[in-house]
Give the backbone structure.
Amino acid sequence: MSLKSLDPRINRLNLPDGEQPPMEPKAAFDQFETYEVFAQKRDNTPFTYAGPVHAPNADVAFLFAKEQYSRRSACSGLWVVQTRHIMVSPYANDDECIYDTFKVEIPEHTAWPLESYEVFHLKKRGKAHTHIGRVGATSYQEAYHKAKQAFAAQHPAVNMWVVKSKNVLQSAEEDRDMWLTLPEKKYREPAAYKVLDRIKSFKEKQQKALNK
Amino acid sequence: MYGGGNTFEAIKAEGLEEEDARKMAEFEGRIAQGEKIEPDDWMPRLYRQQLIRMIEQHAHSEIIGALPEGTWITRAPGFRRKLALMAKVQDEVGHAQLLYSAAETLGKSREEMLTDLINGKSKYSNVFNYPTYTWADSCIISWLIDAGAIVNQMANSKGSYGPYCRALERICAEEAFHLKYGHDSVVYMATGSSIQRQMVQEALNRWWSQIMTFFGPSDKLSVHTETLMRWKVKMASNDECRQQYLDMYVPKILELGLTIPDPLLKKNEDTGQWEYTEPDWDEFRRVINGDGPCNAERLGVRRMAEERGAWVRLALKNPTAKYVRPLA
Ligand SMILES: [Fe+2]
Ligand SMILES: [Fe+2]
Ligand SMILES: [Fe+2]
């Protein structure tokens, strides 16, 4: 006996009916690793944290990110970073700045030349991390220190993330047309649905019928 | 779709006394000041457990809720409705993605959550254990079940856990379209031919008791409930949500000339509270524990998708992967 549904397509699947043995627990990484996604809403605005995606590699992560985080709102660029490539500071209280409370030993310069690092700040708990700038350093620790010198005074933060620029997969300038799909999908906007006139004329008709 | 402050099982966590008093004071002080909790912060076990359960159930409800509506995409009347419903269902699946990640920041892996869903260990909104007989049922869900979800989600977006708030902000923005689309599709039928009117009235009759159970039974004022409210995990009682919902939507239903299948439903002008026939909570409990018209189908379809896609995920798996939970 197979499972009966109102939907003929489900009937055609011939799913087993009745009590099923439990599914084997999913193996580790069945759902892949996580990537963090940053989106740019308009040209010349900073990239802002959108959220994570699960993906088997950076290219697929980019596709998922585009679908998940740029499908429904304006977007002019995406950055995708493997979660494990991001160094995270502790969180400070909302009235503090993390650079005042969190101390990091600066290692001796071991390797040259300088590498580029991207710095993200969280202004307030519950908000989203925003790209604040780039520093050159030879380690995450040094990058933290350089970020403190460069940004702490102007941009106090309760939390900072730092990642090597080379680990950020960025959408390309020449692919800009991939962001141009929103205007043809007006049916996803609340403003596309105007019911008031319909309700009004319906009520008037009903009223007339009553008066008769 | 569902985003209740309550979960569908009794709260099981014990041992609040065992928590570190100094850390607890700091944690509670932060919430009292309106600051958000972020994943790396110290948090009591009850807070973590209850949030995982709640966000996970919310995620399951999104992904399972996509099924009764998704089944109507190919049969939706006209190209425009098909496009819109397809976009809505895609949004719901996207909501599940966002919520699974928010729950994952608290330490439960997505693999575990999906396994628990399929094996019936964790629940989803009970309304989706009922079938969508006609196109009108799908319209009623899009409007009136989503409306309930929005009441919940708006309340929860003011909660204390940062990642959940961020996910809900995105979700609420998308829900505005669902609500308008759903309303439009119901209005269209309710102001149409007598056959259309009859269809939508029958669908409303079928769904009304599910709508009334959507926010869950009256919460017993337990110590735990109070604690969860103080911690801004639970933002409003089930009854408060239900009352707010009735205030907002009963007039909108009635103005379409539809009737609500509850002779006792009326607003008591003295108390300002809606009175109604108490929904059948025995049926609710029976169905949520597995004995409903669509439980087997919902989990069967979900399981089939997981099992038939397994080889693709295996082929793509990266052998050098290292687990890191999402950051925020
Ligand atoms: Fe949703
Ligand atoms: Fe929904
Ligand atoms: Fe929705």
In short: Chain A has a mean pLDDT of 94. Residues B 1, 62, 92, 95, 149, 171 surround fe (ii) ion (ligand 1) (CB under 6 Å). Chain A has one domain: 32-183. The helical segments of chain A are 8-12, 58-70, 98-101, 140-151, 196-211.
